[in-house]
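re: the backbone from monday

yeah here it is again, tokenized this time
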């Protein structure tokens, strides 16, 4: 298997992790990194054993695909430069600062027939991947993503910073047929909204209630789904999923439930905590390289990321009213 020549653009906290995963991936040859902060780029290049490029065009000339973890405000400008050079792109989330900019990236990638994957990393969380191959048709969803305050990401609203993770997963399982959005939010510490809640109504009277906060005392990242016959719980923090499903009539009860009928809910599948060596970012990079190699559809394509961003924009707009 020929290794794909790769690079990483923007090697701050998250970009450094991307560089590490590229360097460790047997299907990639990490050629180099680029960052406006030359000292930082030199440190990361030395750490992962690649070249530090002083010029972005020079890096793009030497690679086939890149991860971009530049600041969100630069995603459109840098992304168009990458795609314009004919290079496949794994763009960190959100895909761009605005949905208009996101569309430009999506259209350019499609025109040039390039892979554009977006780093919505929760799609590679073991709690989510455990449900692959299992039919999920929720009628009601409740999600909480709570975190203590951190200056990182505080330049945007909590909707774009944290909630967008759950919006991407929600749209993945519920589809894109959004009929109504009712949101509210409050700035508490920063000038942007720090805590937000939204009720989203989908076609078929399906409803989702999402809360995101970056001013909580404890961390929580839970996603619960309900339909007529099952309850599915995903704990992103503990990296596990559980499915409780109605059992066929007449199934013996291991533990009788007071007041329950013959269709009571039982544990059908229980996914325990992920193994310590399970690495969502490594899987994300590997998935990107597989799409580049095969020419197939990426796990989280640019169009999906754009739709999630459009929904985030509407939620943020209502929160600011």
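seq for it, each position gets an aa:
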């Amino acid at each position: 298997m020929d290794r794909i020549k790769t690079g990483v653009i923007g090697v701050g906290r998250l970009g450094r992790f991307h560089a590490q995963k590229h360097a460790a991936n047997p299907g990639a040859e990490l050629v180099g990194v680029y960052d406006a902060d030359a000292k930082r780029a030199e440190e990361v290049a030395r750490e992962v054993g690649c070249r530090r490029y002083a010029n972005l065009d020079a890096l793009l000339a030497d690679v086939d695909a890149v991860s971009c973890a530049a600041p969100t405000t630069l995603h459109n400008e840098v992304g168009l430069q990458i795609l314009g050079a004919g290079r496949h792109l794994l763009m960190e989330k959100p895909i761009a600062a605005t949905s208009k900019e996101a569309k430009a990236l999506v259209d350019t990638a499609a025109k040039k027939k390039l892979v554009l994957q977006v780093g919505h990393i929760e799609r590679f969380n073991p709690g989510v991947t455990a449900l692959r191959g299992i039919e999920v048709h929720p009628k009601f969803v409740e999600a909480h993503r709570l975190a203590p305050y951190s200056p990182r990401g505080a330049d945007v609203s909590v909707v774009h910073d944290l909630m967008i993770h759950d919006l991407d997963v929600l749209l993945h399982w519920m589809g894109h047929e959004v009929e109504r959005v009712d949101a509210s939010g409050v700035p508490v510490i920063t000038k942007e909204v720090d805590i937000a809640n939204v009720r989203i109504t989908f076609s078929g009277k399906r409803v989702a209630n999402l809360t995101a906060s970056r001013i909580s005392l404890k961390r929580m990242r839970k996603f619960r789904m309900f339909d007529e016959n099952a309850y599915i719980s995903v704990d992103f923090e503990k990296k596990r999923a559980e499915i409780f499903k109605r059992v066929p009539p007449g199934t013996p009860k291991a533990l009788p439930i007071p007041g329950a009928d013959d269709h009571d809910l039982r544990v059908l599948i229980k996914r325990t905590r992920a193994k310590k060596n399970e690495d969502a970012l490594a899987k994300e990079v590997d998935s990107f390289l597989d799409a580049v190699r095969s020419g197939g559809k990426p796990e989280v394509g640019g169009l999906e990321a754009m739709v999630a961003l459009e929904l985030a924009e509407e939620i943020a707009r209502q929160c600011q009213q």
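The first strand starts at residue 4 and ends at 9. Confidence is low (pLDDT under 50) at residues 254-263, 269-276.
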